[in-house]
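Hey forum,

I'm writing up a methods section and want to include a predicted complex as supplementary material. The small molecule is 2-acetamido-2-deoxy-beta-D-glucopyranose. I've pasted the protein sequence and the SMILES. Can someone with a working setup run it? I'll credit the forum in the acknowledgements.
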Amino acid sequence: MLGFLPLLIYVLVAAANPIKRARQMLAENKGLTQKDYLVTHLPGLAENVPESEIPLMFAGQLPLYHENNTHYFFWKFVDRQKVERAQNRTIFWLNGGPGCLSMDGALMEAGPFRVNADREVTYNNGSWHRQGDIVFVDQPAGTGFSYSMDFDRELADVLWHFLTFLQRYFELFPEDVNNEILLAGESYAGQYIPYIADAVLARNRRLDSEKTGDSELSAADVKYNLRGLLIGNGYISPNEQGLSYVPFAVKAGLIDTNHPNWNDLLHAHEKCQKAVDRTSANNANHDANAFSVVDRTCDDVLNRLLEYTADALAPEYEQCTNMYDYTLKDSYPKCGMNWPPDLAYVSPFLAKEAVMSDLNLVFHKHWTECSGAVGSHLRAKNSAPAVDLLPDLLQHVEILLFHGNRDIICNYIGAELLIKKLEWGGQKGFSENALTYDWRHNGSVEGYVRSERNLTYVNVFDASHMVPFDKPEVSRAIVDLLYRDYDVRAEDGHKPELLTFPIDYVKPAADLGVTPTTADDATAQNTNSTSEVPTDAATNLTVLAELAAQSPVGTKPQNQPQSQISGIVRVIQLAVIVVLIWGVCALYSTYKSKPASIIKTKSTGRKKNVLWADELESAVKEPAKALSLIGKAFSKLTKPAETLGNYQRVDNEDIEMNEGIQVGDDFIIASDDEDVDVAVSREGR
Ligand SMILES: *[C@@H]1O[C@H](CO)[C@@H](O)[C@H](O)[C@H]1NC(C)=O
Ligand SMILES: *[C@@H]1O[C@H](CO)[C@@H](O)[C@H](O)[C@H]1NC(C)=O
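Reply by user p_vandermeer:
Happy to help. Structure tokens for the complex are below, copy them as they are.
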């Protein structure tokens, strides 16, 4: 029977060639497939969320670097009933801190779920995942469920690692690599996002210049279709935004000139002004030492403001103004850090072992909303503030800054100051021609909008630092503002208005053509270029059937290259069977004609005259290896889905290992000591 092996091996080697590419890509992902990241269960999901609204979900800790055991946690939501305009879009969402996890965004803001008092998910009908696939990423390493042996110190580290994350992500989801990408986020992500966008554009330019004309592009060679940036209450120009605290506090009625500490506050403001003058002068001189995202001088203004306006005699939770929403109160000195109230549910929810298992965590990390260790390492001492990157970025992508008007820490007055001073597109600030539009969503005025030369500024009424927390459905329409998916109403004698609509709203036929939109062109480009990218055939073998079975009508159809490749695989399988039958016949006839020779080969181990075996002698010498190949071949033929990913869930254990992966090969389990919970100095989240 052993003489049979070489034939099989030969056939397998021959068969392997067409799917070599797929194998390679699989290897790059260390054997992990989409199936390993599928999320099918969460507490409350089946009970509280209508079945048709349950998104297709993937989550887990994606390996970035083997050497220092870096893994980034992501959670991806895909709408099963995508509206037309949400096709071919991927939104990456980042929260701030630094060091605050993006699960804030997923479970309290732009994601499809909220968490209730029973620690179960409920449905958020204003979720952004209906505007495009949305992916919440815990980063930089150490944040949330992401981990590493190292911490980032400069924004250059952050962007570099995020680019690696994108590469790994698109290896896992190659069908998305041509999607339009939106980078969205909040607060300190106002630093991350411009840096990452700048790196993505630089990467695109490099790929352009390296273009070899080679037709075979892997996901790693594809330019990213960066469409726009959405920054909510961003910490973009920290020092200058520091100058906004006093004007904002006065306007909001938090303090006035009669206050006993008014002069002290003014003194702090003056020191902030001097720090700003100093850094802007140094920046203008390109003095590298002066680059600093955070100069603590201006933080002092906010700290004093909160201190001076605190009321020690009030009940505990009403002593201090909430720095994220001036209309609310909190205990002193927390001053907003106990807010939002959902935090009380989200924290224990994410600390549940069962939830961590549902989210496919390999490493069950102790949960903290904001990692002090991340914040204390990322001082960004040699990083220019992100505002410096905006003029260049605006030549290539649309940037939308939105500000909830109740936020103090990254307030709208600071944003308006920043824009006034910003020089881009050949001019300083918005020109006289840039009209201020009232923004009317679903009939009611929700804010105002100014837009010019690729920069859009949105002021959202009655909203805090976390706009999607207060106004989920309204915040979702901000994506429409970026895409200019709105109607314009400018009648004589009225303030001009921009009108946006609920996600499912279908405009009456008469209205069609009123709305200028650029999305169509971009989508057309997408469709054309999709076929350039090879897809991960092996992944699709395991996932396709399962996803197809799960996905109701309307889910994004899988791309054509995938079905082509799985077609090839099927042909190969058929060929293997045919050759096997032929091999049995050949074996039989050889045995019939020269029985002695075969027996002799087997017993002596010497090469004999079995023709088809000659060139595969080495494999024959290692029967164990050959046997395992045979085993694989048979299981591939019979049940392909189970040979490629055998993820086993082990509940009640800190560490889950994929059975197929060796310790030291892929997952070195991080030590837990990175999670030092020192007091968080929070720039915002
Ligand atoms: C969404 O949910 C909110 C809060 O439960 C509700 O007030 C609103 O009417 C809902 N909107 C839609 C479109 O169902
Ligand atoms: C705005 O961005 C587009 C690319 O999306 C670019 O072609 C155009 O020149 C930019 N406009 C300005 C004023 O920089």
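Some notes you might quote in the supplement: The radius of gyration is 29 Å. The chain has a mean pLDDT of 76.
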